[in-house]
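Protein in question passed on here:
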Amino acid sequence: MTSDLPLAPPTAPRPILEIAGILGLRPGDIDTRGPAVAKVHLSAIGRLEAEAAAAGRRARYVLVTGITPTALGEGKTTTAIGLVQGLNRIGHRATICLRQPSLGQVFGLRGGAAGGGRCMVLPATELDLGLTGDSLAVAAAQDLAAAFLDNALHHGNPLGIDPRAVHLPRVTEVNDRVLRRAIVGIGGRENGLRRETEWVSTMASEVMAILALSSDLADLRARLGRMVLADSLSGRPITAEDLHVAGAMAVLLREAIQPNLLQTLEGGPALVHAGSFAHVAPGSSSVLADRLALAASEIVCTEAGYGADLGAEKFFDIKCRASGRAPDAVVIVATVRALKVHGDLAAAGSPSPGDRALEREAVAAVRRGAANLAAHVEIVRQFGVPVVVAVNLFPTDTAAEVQAIQEAAVVAGARAAVPSDHFARGGEGASELARTVWEVASRDPEPLRPLYPDGLSLREKIEIVAIRVYGASGVDFSATASRTLARFEEAGFGALAVCVAKTPYSLSSDASRVGRPSGFRVTVHDVRLAAGAGFVTPFLGGVRALPELPAHPRAERIDIEPGGEIVGLK
């Protein structure tokens, strides 16, 4: 059962060439980055896909999502890793595809994304500290475009850029609140045109979304060229192609587009590629990593950030549109203690693992909180994909509480709800969950039902997501948001998808409203365009694209010993 036990004892990773061999990769298909990490060449993906097609193989595809998260942490990544380890243990060739963590969050509040207990991706330290530098390449590419734009303004503004209509933000890997809005260009003409601008997290950047959604290098290059950086004085969109910077941006990303190969604690393949931040961005692993895994495995588990209202909805409506592949099953991770929070047993904003109320049996609170689980099951079922609920076990859970979750999940439409003890027991503890997921994912899939067709207006798409996914009674649009949406549609961007930015801690746009709130409306106060990525982002509530540091960031506890050992990262 999950507990506050230390992480698994150090385990020597297998040589990365052995892990590559499991996927059918040849030595020439990878570039090793040390003994336990490799970059996979894109040419290998096409070869493996051709081999799979010739053999008539079709891998099962499973998405792992969760209920509305709490400050306790529900163990979604740990469950995804445990599930894959369990699938390998019962005899199926399984691969996991994960998102890369944000350095800002590693040093800020949430910590890393390598899993925990007996369910980890190795090498964990490298994973949490930037891995192969993909996010640095993304930041360099987006900041290069920003620099080109300001350079054009300085050198006579030949494209007629309106300095009041510059849309492209710069990016940073550090959670730094003072950069959210800033004045640049001060100190004289040689320092550029003075104007207001902003920074966003690298993980929330359009370039990161493009990296995640691109199907190959040519698609990446074309998407970068379509990025709208600003408007002209006449209102015409100014793109990265117009500024002749898209090619150089693609060069900076030539290695970042290659998926990263690592391994699970039990020696199975793990692909880690593209960004997180599903509350403002797509928040899924890359299309290319998933394609590689699907071509080389019997079953692939991938993860989408936060709950089904954010990561899973964006997975279906954005990523599946880009990849052309829908999942065969969805696993929703729930915990007894989180449902107690959603059942109003603890303070929603700051419950702690040591909260005595969470440790005592409270079946009634679990049943009340299970309304949140039911909402997430219903969200996924709208898309026509079967659901299995994984009950991530903790030592204080009782049989009656787990049974209450199982009963509520099945009533809501899940095929099954399976307790899983993977944190303490690894793949063995997830074996029953693995057998259930394999059986459900092996049935003939239903056609995916996206929430909205491309032809609806952007306003209609936003309303559909808010009403059918969040449970809102309606959507209000600020005057600014209404004007912006009209401008986007007039410019020809009305067919794009929507990637809503909102708090992940409530189905509503108010983080304090836990459980399954009703009778609320949401307000769109701003809308951003990501033409290269293929979506617009409406902002609800006070959510931001650059988090801040807490009063005591996690980095205060991180240090390095004289011998080079890193301490405090976990």
